[in-house]
Fold this protein.
Amino acid sequence: MIQSGRFNALAKWEMLCRFWADQNSVTDPCAGRFNEPVFPRWQDDAIAGGKAAIREYLRANFPELPLPPRRHLQAHKAFIHRDDTVDGEILRLAKEDDQLADKIVLEMIPGIKEKNYPASFVTEPSPQALRLIQQVFKAGAIEYLRWTEDAGEIPSIHELRCHAAAFPIEAVQGQRKALCLFCALFLGRSDVIHVYDASPEHVTLVDRLSDPLEEMKLIYPSSWEYVCSDYSEALRMATTRQLSYDLVVADQPEPIAKEVAWDCLPMIMNLCTDSFITNYFVEMFTDLGVACDDLSGLSQAVTLRTGVEVVFTQTMKRSDAVYWVVIRRK
Ligand SMILES: C[S@@+](CC[C@H](N)C(=O)[O-])C[C@H]1O[C@@H](n2cnc3c(N)ncnc32)[C@H](O)[C@@H]1O
């Protein structure tokens, strides 16, 4: 954590535990950036961190298990190979039950039953195994609770990584000069953190919000450029100055998704020498009349619509509503 808010991770965990035990025993401190209640988000983060830590513990101890993609965590490491007998039992439990991490949620938070977490283990774990899994869960939960976007909190790079989501990371590898538009609201946890991890030589960040951009200056390299501007103005300036970027990333909001992805495509591809990564909302695939995984269909439809000869090289689901797409000039 670069700067803490009102509560540290352990205090958040303690308050959540009291809340889970008796919802009336503790009042939500409303410590969010907009003075909003924080318990719902703390709970989501604690559960996400706890489950991630269990999966990382299983991955580290038992590489043979099929598991979802790796998350960045340290918490589980203290528990790896601590007790061979208990480890062996947990491997057996995990092999027969791919919902082990979910089932621990119910063990930790009995009151959460209404959220449809699967009940009852296939085989009941021994008290020792259950205790170890619960400890791993708690450690992961506390690691995730370090940054919950409360007022005043500025996360470290590691904490941002923990909260990062799906991104087409192959497309950013080896890119030297990057432009990230619409990057600031969540301090770049959706996109900029992945660009940072690819170690480019130079990055320009553009957003019209000055406060989070100022906070990003404390997180990312001081050699990067932080531009507080409307994106269209930033694109015009870059065009006038004849700048070019290997990589352009745009995480634009839905109301201007088509404007950025289609109307601005000629200008963006003029600045972009390699890859353009941007948001496509589901409605945009419908508008084009092309399925989200039909790369050649998308290439043809967008070339026809924008007049820019492009090739789609990847689409990646971010949520039910939106995909990342990777576009290159033909
Ligand atoms: C979905 S958020 C992006 C979050 C960001 N990628 C992250 O991971 O933190 C959209 C961002 O677009 C910015 N934005 C919206 N309209 C803009 C515009 N016309 N020019 C510049 N930035 C804009 C908002 O300030 C917000 O930071």
Q: What stands out?
A: Residues 182-191, 207-209, 230-231, 251, 253 surround S-adenosylmethionine (CB under 6 Å). The longest strand covers residues 272-281. The mean pLDDT is 93. The chain has 13 helices and seven strands.
